[in-house]
């Protein structure tokens, strides 16, 4: 539960900053150095959460399940929050260049949430598995 809360918090903070950057852009949408840095920082923080989850699980199967389930919940809740946070800024930015119907934005944001769930579940399971393997390797090292 704590891991899910931390992951949702990381994603929410990242989305708030992304929405601000999108709103501040006057020209076409493009990747900025600060946006890329923030994404990298959010990714690293998320990896640390999943590694800790796997470290704590202590067994391969438990780590895979914990990482996947945490990813599903964090992806669903966090993805929905991120979609809600960026929707207005994204709608305004795209609206400067094209007339896009509301159903299109709804579909794109729903797709974003589905992808957030799938990627978070798969990535969470893989990184939590790595965490349990790292913890096992660090416990079985012979003393120096």
Summarize the model shown.
The chain is an all-alpha fold and 144 residues long. The chain has one domain.
Largest sheet geometry:
none
Oligomer: single chain
H-E string: HHHH
How many helices?
4
Q: Please tally the β strands and state the result.
A: 0
What overall geometry do the principal axes of the alpha carbons give?
Answer: elongated
Q: pLDDT below 50 for ≥5 consecutive residues: which ranges?
A: none
Distance between the termini: 37 Å
What structural class should be given to the helix and strand makeup?
mainly alpha
**Approximate helicity band:** over 70%
User: What percent of residues are in strands?
Assistant: under 5%
Spatial extent as radius of gyration: 18 Å
Average of the residue pLDDT scores: 89
